[in-house]
Amino acid sequence: MSEAETEAPDLVADVLDGDHRALARTISKIEDRAPGYRDIVSALHAHTGDAEVIGVTGSPGAGKSTLVDKLAKTYRDRGLTVGVIAVDPSSPYTGGAVLGDRIRMASNVGDMDVFFRSMSARGQLGGLSTATADAIKALDAFGKDRIVVETVGAGQNEVDVVRTADTVVVLVQPGSGDDVQMLKAGILEIGDVFVVNKADMDGASTTVSDLQEMLHMREGATAAGAGHHGAGAAVESDANADDKSTDEWDPQIVETVATEGEGVRDLIGALDAHYDHLRSTGELDRRARTRTAEEIRQLLRADAADLLEGEIDRRGGMATLVDEVRARETDPYTVADRILTPLADCVRERRERDDPVE
């Protein structure tokens, strides 16, 4: 038995016992994809499902980090424990989080019940890597009441936050044109709560009015099952569910001045209202099913890709295959068939062995 295999049970036990150092080590293993991390995540999975997960997104400079800091502080004032994952741009040299060393939780320094971790998006700008989703599971199993995921804010890929969050908060700052850009980038469709931060700036009321108008325009699309609110249809077994609620959440707009903590309580009120709505309509379970289905597909794609890369290497590497295609000795379809055939044969043989024909 390897060292990783012998360490995993103890690490899992320590996380479940509330050991913060064990939690930090677990997330490090998850982020590094270290040997044994899958066993750890699998063991923690049975202890998840209690935390509320909030995704916070928006353009750079909108004040996400400051708002998350104040949000965590207010939750702590209410006796709730908080985990924060800040997904930062990946370093082109190390793959680590470029902004990982910055001080982002000034209001919560020294509070052991606020666990902050800056993680790399691993090349998926604005997206949440599989490692981030696994880190959320670790925080959930640890017992955090609220988990806040703050994303980079890099445009179209920001919709990835939907896959891990129960509630999506989109930040806009007045006078920056962010509202128009969000509409173009598809960000408008994923928000459950919209925050006009820096509401003491000129143009805040105009930004609120613009958002109200655009959300009104969005209603037709969501009714047709588009965007975040129609995501449940992605799970085939639920696509035609007779009991699916027709109740739609009316996205709320909250004005805040995060640097002063103004409006944070109103934001928490909106978050609580949305979570209550998810539970009462059954949407909470539908979103969880959709996330699970997408997670399974992602893992299958990643593992299958690793198998295919190994087969490519066995056949001389991609450069050799490209040379053969460029020399017109073969073609891309034939190459793909050659690589996939042994894998397909293995699957077929396994299927026939497990399910023999009568």
Automatic annotation (TrEMBL):
This is Methylmalonyl Co-A mutase-associated GTPase MeaB. The keyword Hydrolase applies. Belongs to the SIMIBI class G3E GTPase family. ArgK/MeaB subfamily. The gene is meaB. SUPFAM superfamilies: P-loop containing nucleoside triphosphate hydrolases. It comes from Haloplanus ruber. Residues 223-247 are annotated as: Disordered. Residues 223-234 have a biased composition (Low complexity). GO terms for molecular function: GTP binding; hydrolase activity. Keywords: Chaperone, GTP-binding, Hydrolase, Nucleotide-binding. It holds the Pfam family MeaB.
